[in-house]
Write a structure and sequence with these properties.
Blueprint lengths: L4 H20 L5 H4 L3 H15 L2 H6 L1 H19 L5 H7 L1 H25 L4 H14 L1 H11 L3 H29 L3 H11 L3 H9 L3 H16 L1 H11 L14 H15 L4 H25 L3 H6 L1 H25 L1
Length: 330
């Protein structure tokens, strides 16, 4: 990683925006709205990304990408300080079954609809489906390592994930009173159907801490399923285990679990734990601000109509079909 002046500026801007969002969330005006620092950060990022000149943003892109990727993963790992092994055991095998069902349905139906009904090429249909069904942009990039598609197809798939994942982050809290779910059920529903880890976390946090905790655990189970899915895709597409593209395991999930295990059996002083939670909120909000800047309305034009239609159809299926599957399994 090359550290330059522009890299430092990009990281500093994201952290400053994160601290501002963290401070703003505690002010009196937010008592009724109850917007989390993560939500405030991504709104601020979207406003900045769509009003500032691209020539200015382009200079600090390395720092923004660092926050989008490294700080996000570090924040997710540190999020484990809020959870215990007991929380994991409460989730149960049905949540895992829900994750597996959601991924299978999205990949199969999304690929079929994309190629047969919408006339998309195989790579675009698969990338959009993988991003929507598994874990967002990370799944798109990981799948691309297996199928070796063209770069513009990857960009289109990532754009759809950012757009509809952001919509989900704001829509799910509004839907919560209508779902009939408990906070735990809603957390599982959110984790099993929202695109990105950070988006699932923010959507759950807008409802409650319990919903957020459950959403993150459920989502991390979904992320873990990325590895076996990639193996299956590589076999179906005719690339064996010794193919030229290696499958990268999402190691941040392992460290997330390690933090949960460590703090479940090692006593952490309440004051120290509170400071770590505050630090984690700042890290995640920094990542959300950077993600917000990347959410530009121009992405809708670049993606084209058919990939957006596929992503919209999958999103509708995740919201409605995920609700029905959650009702049936939990």
């Amino acid at each position: 990683m090359k550290i330059s002046r522009n890299w430092l500026i990009g990281v500093a801007v994201c952290i400053a925006a994160s601290l501002a969002a963290w401070w703003s969330a505690k002010l009196g005006w937010n008592q009724k709205l109850q917007l989390s620092p993560l939500t405030l950060a991504i709104v601020a990022g979207m406003a900045a990304g769509n009003t500032m000149r691209w020539s200015l943003l382009e200079k600090v892109l390395p720092g923004l990408r660092f926050c989008q990727q490294k700080l996000l993963r570090l924040g997710i790992v540190l999020y484990g300080i809020r959870l215990t092994v007991g929380d994991l055991s409460k989730l149960g095998p049905r949540a895992l079954m829900l994750d597996m069902t959601v991924i299978s349905c999205v990949l199969v139906i999304g690929y079929f609809v994309g190629t047969r009904w919408l006339g998309l090429d195989r790579d675009t249909a698969l990338l959009v489906s993988a991003g929507s069904g598994i874990c967002g942009a990370a799944a798109v990039l990981a799948t691309d390592r297996v199928i070796d598609s063209e770069s513009h197809k990857v960009s289109v798939a990532v754009a759809t994930v950012v757009v509809f994942g952001t919509v989900a982050m704001f829509l799910y809290p509004v839907l919560y009173p209508l779902t009939g779910f408990s906070e735990r059920q809603f957390g599982i529903y959110t984790g099993a159907t929202v695109h990105e880890v950070a988006q699932a976390l923010a959507a759950g946090r807008a409802v409650s801490q319990a919903a957020s905790d459950t959403a993150v655990i459920t989502k991390m189970l979904r992320v873990l399923l990325l590895a076996p899915v990639l193996v299956i895709i590589s076999r179906v597409r005719g690339r064996g285990a010794n193919g030229s593209k290696s499958i990268k395991f999402p190691w941040f999930v392992f460290w997330f679990g390690a933090v949960i295990g460590a703090q479940s059996f090692i006593h952490v002083a309440p004051a120290a734990r509170a400071h770590l939670i505050d630090l984690d909120t700042v890290l995640l909000s920094s990542a959300m601000f950077a993600l917000g800047i990347a959410t530009r309305w121009q992405q809708l034009k670049q993606a084209g109509t058919r990939p957006l239609l596929l992503a919209a159809g999958i999103f509708a299926g995740l919201v409605s079909g995920g609700w029905m599957m959650t009702r049936a399994l939990l």
